[in-house]
Amino acid sequence: MFTPEDIDGLDFSHLTPEQLAEVDDILRRLAEDAQYDWLQNARPEQLMPITEKGWRTMFCRCGRGWGKTRTGAEWVRWLCENNSNLTIVVGAPTKKDIRETIAKAIVNVFPPQTRPKYIESKQRIVNLPNNNLIVCYSAEMPELPRGQNSHYCWLDEIGSYDSNGPTFYMNIRMGLRLGDNPQCLITSTPTPSTLVKQIVSEPNVIVVEGSTFDNAANLAASTLDYLKELYEGTRMGNQELYGQLLLDTPGALWSAELIGVAQIRECVTDHRFIVIGVDPAVTSDAKSDLTGIVVAALGEDELFYVLEDASGVYTPNGWAAKVIELYESYNADFIIAEANNGGDLVINNIKSVDPNANVKKVYATRGKERRAEPVVGLYEQGRVRHVPNLAELEKQLCGWSPYDRTAKSPDRLDALVWAMTYLLSTMRKRLRVF
What is the DSSP letter of 280? Predict the structure, then answer.
């Protein structure tokens, strides 16, 4: 009779068929045990719920595919295998999420010989090791957890809870009071919901951050390519891929919601007019403001498209060359240049690269907020579209407040406003003509 310790260094050539079958069975069981050895297979950050001591709330705020659900399910399994007589509450946005994601994940992380059972009619996971019990709730019925006491809770995709989410969360947390150190693990892509903002502002919350690409070894290459194509380079990609919490700045004219509505994967319309908005920096050393350079278009569908943000720190010749490069590559109709600082020098700078460029000089006679308001109105009406790879522009739009007198000049925003203002006036003139 062999033991696992006998296998190492064993001479297989002298074994009988019966002994070989016995060894094969041992190797199969060892491979199975290794498959379910989470402490060996997990990445260090996925083990934090187990290895970090003394915490009360942990928020795994990570991108899609990071392994959030696996982390939560394995934490629940570890609790059940190392404790007895626990009541563990798990929560998800809907009953469907409980059935198809949470319960399935918990059941499947257990080895086959100790695998528990999910009873959907009772919303319970039973037959757990050591007489433990898991009770399942969905945010669709926020009052149902009221009075349910627990030792631990795991709340998945809390950023997707509907308007009942805060009540649901409060009722579960109020019941989290059994044992010496009740703990709540939260796993979610961090949409900027009221509930997520509340949780990250609570005291003593441990936040675990991570991106989709941390788990690249376990994701299909085609999946990674698809996610990159869908989100890479966008403000939403910062949330969905990199797990960043996109909080709006108080007083900001643009919001994450407005930007989210504007985002598209590709532009499929012809353009009636294309312009390049330019907000030139006064100086050009390493500490200079950016020169804002944004390409925008009025589509045949009467929608406004933001096609490229090429803003950066340039020398005067450098930004002029970049503007002309874009002017030619997009076959743009006009360059719209803000000329409050430098006046004709701005125009001359562009003309020195291409004397035939169509340049329209504009002056700021009103404050940034007043100039931006009609453009913000277009976003609020759902009439603006953003192509991918505008993350820095989108970040500045949502991060600049006209009431913050200490904020740096919003160069990208200014270039966008100049371009969109001209397109809007062009469309209005066209409507008057026809």
Answer: -
